[in-house]
Amino acid sequence: LAQNRLLELFGLKQPGQPLDEAEWGVNVQPYSGSPANLAVYTGLLNPHDRLMGLHLPDGGHLTHGFATLTKKISATSIFFESMPYGLNICDSVGAILLADMSHISGLVAARVVPSPFTHADVVSSTTHKTLRGPRSGMIFYRRKARPGAQELQPPPYVPADQLESRLNNAVFPSLQGGPHENVIAGVACMAREVSQVKSSICFMHPERWIFSSHIVI
């Protein structure tokens, strides 16, 4: 139920469409955002693979890998090689593009800001920030390659048809034990509520739209 509602909320699945026929899937078992990101790294990377992310003062997060010249601050920097980047080079090197939309997921759901799903291979998020749900995490992943990805040289580091199995295995049993089913039920309720709020927001007067956006932020 939670998977269905989340995929429909972000426009990744048509109502009534079977889950296994959607181009995207979602894992709703991560306990929060940091475990969700670590599951992505564990499932898709090998130890000491290189991870590139935004610098912390520029919008990055500790779980994207943060270190100084003398100390590795984040566990991500201990297990993987992390470094900041300023250019979009994913396609040119066959890298996986992960978008962490934890802070803006509510605005993405409301179609107030551009969606990362158009460009990303994997999207992670928390559920307790702008989605104002229970504290939890989720990982969205493509089931089919991005348009044009088949022609990339070098090819993608992990093919799209392997993302689901590798990410699900990374969440359980690699990193977590049993899922918090009470929290997942709350996430399903959250997705339902947000979809109803989104419908009312989309038909607001332009001035009310701007006001609502400022309140959400």
UniProtKB/TrEMBL annotation:
Residues 88-194 form the Serine hydroxymethyltransferase-like domain. Keywords: Pyridoxal phosphate. GO terms for cellular component: mitochondrion. One of its GO terms (biological process) is tetrahydrofolate interconversion. GO terms for molecular function: glycine hydroxymethyltransferase activity; pyridoxal phosphate binding. PROSITE patterns: SHMT. SUPFAM superfamilies: PLP-dependent transferases. Its cofactor is pyridoxal 5'-phosphate. It comes from the Eukaryota. This is Glycine hydroxymethyltransferase. It comes from Echinostoma caproni.
